[in-house]
Amino acid sequence: MSNSGNTDPQNFSPAERSLLSRYVTNTEGSVFALTNLPEVVKGALFSRYSRSAKGLRELLLTDFIQAPESEFAGIGGFSGEALRSGETAAKESEAAVKRAEGFYSRILDSYGDDSIAELGGAHLAIENVSMIATKVLEDARIGGSPLEKSTRYVFFGDKVDGEYLFYQEPALMDSAHRELYLNTNRALFETYREMIGPLTAYVEQAAQRDPGVSEAAWRRSVRARVFDGLRGLLPASTLTNMGIYGNGRFFETLLIRLQISPLAEMQTLGGAMLAELSKVIPSFVRRADPAHRHFSGFQQYHQSLTAFTERAPIPSAEGPIAPGGDPPEEPSPVKLVDWDPAAPRKVLASLYFSGSGGDSAPLLAWAGSLSEAERTARFQELADLRENRRHKPPRALELAFYTFDLTGDFGMYRDLHRHRMLTQQRQPLSARLGYEMPEEIAGAGLQSPFAAAMERAGEAYERIAADFPEAAQYVVPMAYRIRWQIHINLRALIWLVELRSSPQGHPAYRRMAQQLFRKAAEVHPSFAPLFKFVDLTEYPLGRIGAEQRAENST
């Protein structure tokens, strides 16, 4: 190129264009994407880009491709003009990354803060992890996108090498609780398998096929409803699969959290994830290595923070349930514990702020002068603009916040947990809040074996928890309740409620979504029109509409 710092693509020679065309989608336009580049190169390239007068393509060419210390050819898996064989390329690329690690780490450290770690990412498959582990993996709110195998569409009653697929927790397997743990888990899976037939027969009879619905769509809906009813029998030790896409910052934080967990599964999982991510985004996860100078500081802080939060000024009133004794009083599923009475005035004023040309004070005074009926009419006008639930309300609605204490079965919690635009925290899973009896189970007359399985697991939990309070969570079936708290703004609450009250949703979380709406509408009735697509109807076979649409599209 003739002039360093001149980003005019016309300055590229034909040879330079040919070289760059492997790594950018075009060599001429002002908008282009990167291709065929390792994540570490992308992150380092963008971090330097923010402080350079050069265009990205020129920077890639001069500071990376043509810089010997970058090991670019080796990292990219290229030898001169030819692409190397897959195995050779992988080995040489890994070696080149190690040789160039200092080069890329210096760039990442020198040209930005922690946010630079968001410029590189990876897709990670995580298989044969427990339901307990999936919640830890999904706790991080920003920078990661998890996808988990569904208990609604997949049968979990298979055996491999003669054993059901559940996590055999090392401390418990080496303890006096070994046989209790194994036998309790096996009994839950046996009950799950035994109920498939009678529950299927009941659902088929209770929700007979409409002539306008195809046989295939109806059967898929029946199967989903059966699995929904049975999932409460699956213990939290049940093994499942996950896929996660995340950026480097997300993974680094997650890896640290896993490796300082008191549970062996998390520690092992964190080490395995670090090993694999170090092969693709090494410079982004280096601080998650226990040998890194900052790791011990993270570990000490976590231990101190845990000790601080466990010193609750009001101890729990819930203790062990005596075998055969009365079940605990059922907790309220949804408690609204905090909200802002002035929220409607604040939200309405903020809605008009961007078009006002002035500051907020006059708008707040105006919104405060309106009657509730007048404010409701304004919100109704806004709601009328939305044609479907994917037409998201404006950000002004984020000025209203709600704090809820929620209690529901662990299966429902797993579904509702996957909402990122909120603050949430949970209490440990236990058998001390009782369990939910699924409607399908009761309707099919299967309460007795279901209850027997729950009570057996509850007793096992208490015995194990006396010695291993953390590990005892693994033996708790998903029908048992867990308590968690969410702090959520109105905009995010509308999205959650409309999504989770849709007909195809699980009946349990549909009812919780409906209650969330009702609780918010009680304290802020003028906001009720904004929940335009909340569905308050009950459906006998909620998946049928979605399954028929899928059938029609094929």
Write the layout of secondary structure elements.
Elements: H1 14-20, H2 39-49, H3 56-65, H4 72-75, E1 78-79, E2 82-83, H5 86-110, E3 121-130, H6 131-138, E4 144-148, E5 159-160, E6 163-164, H7 170-173, H8 178-206, H9 215-230, E7 239-247, H10 248-259, H11 264-280, H12 295-309, E8 334-339, H13 343-351, H14 360-369, H15 372-384, E9 401-409, H16 410-416, E10 423-426, H17 439-443, H18 447-465, E11 481-489, H19 490-500, H20 507-523, H21 544-553
Antiparallel strand pairs: 1-2, 3-7, 4-7, 5-6, 8-9, 9-11, 10-11
Helix pairs in contact: 2-3, 2-5, 8-9, 8-18, 9-21, 10-11, 13-14, 19-20
Q: How is this structure best described in words?
A:
- This protein is of the alpha+beta class.
- Among the domains are: 9-112, no CATH class; 176-230 and 437-478, no CATH class; 334-431 and 482-553, 2-Layer Sandwich (Gyrase A, domain 2), CATH 3.30.1360.
- The chain has helices at 14-20, 39-49, 56-65, 72-75, 86-110, 131-138, 170-173, 178-206, 215-230, 248-259, 264-280, 295-309, 343-351, 360-369, 372-384, 410-416, 439-443, 447-465, 490-500, 507-523, 544-553; strands at residues 78-79, 82-83, 121-130, 144-148, 159-160, 163-164, 239-247, 334-339, 401-409, 423-426, 481-489.
- A hairpin with a 2-residue loop joins strand 1 (78-79) and strand 2.
- The longest helix has 29 residues, at 178-206.
- It is globular, with a radius of gyration of 28 Å.
Report a brief summary of the structure.
With 554 residues, the protein is of the alpha+beta class.
Low-pLDDT segments, ≥5 res: 2-7, 77-86, 321-326, 546-552
Round the mean pLDDT to the nearest integer and report it. 86
- What is the global morphology? globular
Radius of gyration: 28 Å
Output the structural class. alpha+beta
Look up the CATH topology of one domain. Answer: Gyrase A, domain 2
| End-to-end CA span | 53 Å
Task: Tally the beta strands.
Answer: 11
Query: Which CATH top level class of one domain fits?
Result: Alpha Beta
Indicate the percent of residues in helices.
40-55%
**Strand numbers in spatial order across the main sheet:** 8-9-11-10
Per CATH, the architecture of one domain is: 2-Layer Sandwich
Helix segment tally? 21
Largest sheet: 4 strands, antiparallel
